[in-house]
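Quick one: co-fold with zinc ion.
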Amino acid sequence: MNEFPSEFKLKEAMCDVGRKIWLKGFCAGNEGNHSYRIGKDRFLCTPTGISKGELRADDLCVVDGNGKQLAGKRKRTSEFLMHAAIYKARPDCNAVIHSHPPHATAFAIAGVDLPTCIHPEAEVFLGPVKTAHYVTPGDTRLGESLLPYVKDSNVILMGNHGIVSFHPTLEQAYYNLEIVDAYARILLLTKSLGSVRTLTSDEMTELVQLKARFGIPDPRAEDAKKGAIACGASDYVSRVNTESGMRGRMMGDAGISAVQPQNPLERAIAELTPNQYTEADIEQLVQIITNQIMAA
Ligand SMILES: [Zn+2]
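Sure, here it is.
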């Protein structure tokens, strides 16, 4: 059997994914790494210290499941051991991509979980996405930090760091990276509009039942069979609602609300505040006083 042509094609596919990652702005400089299972205990992975936009087939490394380099003129990425931990925990997955898509990474840095019960595509392709705690990049503990979440979704946010996506196919592992960043971007835009409608328990149950018909696993499948998926409050939704409550009444070029504040505290501050104060100043003042009242 001539193995070379297929391995070469897989290397080309790895380079294509690298170019897409770079063109999308998911990795700056030499950031990120990806790998592909090409045989029993044999993986292609990206080398260290190269832009993912400039990868060529002969830049790629071949490693075993312990990260031992078997072939390639360049040194393998230092984060392959994180990939290896995922391959071990998810034998169904043949591709792992790690990168720093800015919108989704913003959630990982803010420590805000991506909410569920909001967007059908995110529910179908991603499911409940969790945030793993921060570990120094390249550290062997990085893989361990992902293990608690690796079976529930094909995407994990890495605290203060980025995203890891894994899937049976390289193509869908890449698409899930696009989907998670698009979802995070939609959430950030929605927040600026100041309101969010969450899906109802019935709507979510229908979605998860639809996933089951497509053969896509979801940790909530049993709840969906009973017709009982709970769509509770999330950190994200409470942030949108809290901030819109503040902001909606603090509009106007002069920094003073054009709409008469309804809250007695805000009304008192608006009356006492000189015109040269900006909207941001007033908002900060309201926040400080609110915090003090809540603390008391
Ligand atoms: Zn990284």
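If it helps, The beta strands are 33-39, 42-45, 61-63, 69-71, 95-99, 130-132, 155-158, 162-167.
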